[in-house]
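Format notes (please read before filing issues)

Several people have asked whether sequences and C-alpha cells are stored in separate files. They are not. Every record keeps both together, in the order shown below: the sequence lines, then the C-alpha cell lines. Line labels are part of the format and must not be stripped during preprocessing.
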Amino acid sequence: MANLLTILRMILCIIAVEFLFSGRPELALSSFFITLLVVILDGLDGVVARALNEQSEFGSVFDIIGDRVVENLYWIAFAGLGWVGIWVPMAVVTRGILTDGLRSIALSKGFTAFGEHSMMKNKFMHFLTASRISRAVYGTAKVLAFLAVIIANIPNVEFLDILTIEQHQIFIAIQPKLILFADILVYITVAMCIIRGIPVLIESKRYIDDKK
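Then the structure lines:
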C-alpha cells in the first residue's frame, strides 16, 4: 500500500507539471493544489508503511526514488518555464546522482540511507542528513519553495475567473514581492539540499574502502 502511494504521488506530480506548461491560469492553480496533495501523500506513505508493518529495504529505496522523481520534475519544470535559474536543477540533480550512487554502495553492504541500519555512523552527520528533524525541516522548505514558485508565477492571472477585478489588481501589484519571496525559499532549499548531501559523500568512504 505504501509503495502504491509513492507511485500515485509520482503520477500526480507529472500531472501537476503538465498543468504548469499549459499556460492556463486555472490549470496552474490546480497544479498548486495537486502539489499540496503530493506533499500529503509523501508524509502518508511512511505512516502507512509503519501502520501496516510494510517497512522494508525496497520500500526505503523506493521512497527515495519517489522523492527524486518529484523533486527533479518540479525543479526542471520551473527552470524550463524560466521561473528559476537552470543552475537549480543542475545542482539538485547532480547532488542526487552523487548521493544515491554512493548510497547504493552502502546498500550493497547492508546499510540503508535512513533508519536502524543507516549508513551514517557519525552522530552529527547522521543528525544533519538522516534524522527525522533534518528530513522534516528540509521537506518543509522544499514544499514551501515549490508552492511559492507556483503561486508567484501563475501565468495570465488576469484571466483567472475566480478572482474579481480588484483581486486581479492586488495580485499583480504584489506579484514582484511574491516572486522575491519564492526566490529566497529556492536559495534556502537548494543550500540545504547541498549541505545535507556533503555528509553522505564523507561517510561513504568507509563503504568504498573494502578494507574497512
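For reference, the curators noted about this record: DSSP finds eight helices and no strands in the chain. Helices lie at 2-20, 25-51, 57-80, 87-108, 123-129, 132-152, 165-203, 205-208.
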